[in-house]
Design a protein that fits this description.
CATH class: Alpha Beta
CATH superfamily: Leucyl/phenylalanyl-tRNA-protein transferase, C-terminal domain
Number of strands: 7
Distance between the termini: 46 Å
Helix content: 25-40%
Largest sheet: 7 strands, mixed
Strand order of the largest sheet: 2-3-4-5-6-1-7
Structural class: alpha+beta
CATH architecture: 3-Layer(aba) Sandwich
């Protein structure tokens, strides 16, 4: 029996508590600043490549399927989904992240690195871009140990929903 497009479902994760990165609390170490000098940051130049790298089946806990890439590529084409890409001096994609933007809100979906610190450089660039454009909320879903080391915190659902409403109304 074939499954139709209408029958397919995407799970919507709404963790309690929710992980966010306060834009004024990103931890940038001296070594991260030094690493950033080795890379060039671009935005939205190779969205699909970033998604595919994030969805590499050899990565532990992989969840990004081909159908997911197709759906987010369409969101990218419509101007909702964006990528921050980090390239090394030889022009190779070294790391990056992608997510969805709505007004003053960015929902980070996934990040990857092929070279040391490249995903951290992408996050640094994203936060700077968000600050420059007056955005207010960076959602990272889960507050992992890695993200917590960069300044991510957990917030209760009611606080998160309040921050989300403010961010969506802020532009």
């Amino acid at each position: 029996m074939e499954v139709t497009a209408l029958q397919k479902r995407l799970g919507w994760w709404s963790p309690e508590p929710r992980g966010i990165v306060p834009l004024d609390h990103l931890r940038i170490t001296k070594s991260m600043r030094q690493s950033a000098k080795r890379f060039e940051v671009r935005v939205d130049t190779c969205f699909v490549d970033v998604m595919r790298a994030c969805g590499d089946p050899s990565r532990e806990d992989g969840w990004i399927t081909g159908e997911f890439v197709d759906a987010y590529t369409r969101l990218h084409e419509l101007g909702w989904a964006h990528s921050v890409e980090v390239f090394d001096r030889e022009g190779r994609l070294a790391g990056g992240l992608y997510g969805v933007r709505a007004e003053g809100f960015f929902a980070g979906e996934s990040m990857f690195h092929a070279q040391r610190d490249a995903s951290k450089v992408a996050l640094m660039a994203l936060v700077e871009l968000m600050r420059e454009s007056g955005m207010r909320l960076l959602d990272v879903q889960w507050c992992t140990t890695h993200l917590a080391s960069l300044g991510a915190i957990e917030v209760a659902r009611d606080r998160y929903l309040s921050l989300l409403a403010e961010a969506l109304a802020s532009r």
